[in-house]
Amino acid sequence: MNQRPHRRKAQAGFTLIELLVVVLIIGILAAIAVPQYFKVVEKGKFSEATATLDSIRGAQERYMAANGNYCTAALPTQSSPGTCAGFDLTIPSLSHFTVGAAAAGAGSPSWTISLTRSTPLPAQYGAYVVTYDVEPGVPPTITCSQSQCTTDLLP
Q1: Which one of 1, 24, 54, 105 has the fewest beta carbons within 10 angstroms of its own beta carbon?
Q2: pTM summary value
Q3: DSSP, residue by residue, 79-128
């Protein structure tokens, strides 16, 4: 009888070291990408606040031109008429922020308004408040109540 010599089958697959290297690389990429992802998501939500603030600024300038002063009280929203007669903007219901009442600023004439981040709060930033200060002849100032919010989200 002719017997064929027994050949050992070639093993296929990856070694344990190769698998560990791949897992390590994926872990490093995830550690870098996940915080950046949450930062980008929060920037998108923050843009809702800046767009609203820009709309309010335009309406405040029109109100100033018509009345000689800024509206420094409750602004009209979809659920409340506000207290400034003739204010031509109804602030929409925001998904991620709550709009406070406009207040008189430090200088005259000037105004300030704050938007508070509503729930669910981002873990990286928590509850923060965006404040918008406007004085004539000076670019508006946007500040954030938390330092990390200031460095990550403000334009």
Answers
A1: 1
A2: 0.72
A3: S---S-TT---PBPPPSSEEE---EE-SSSS-EEEEEEEPSSPPTTT-S-
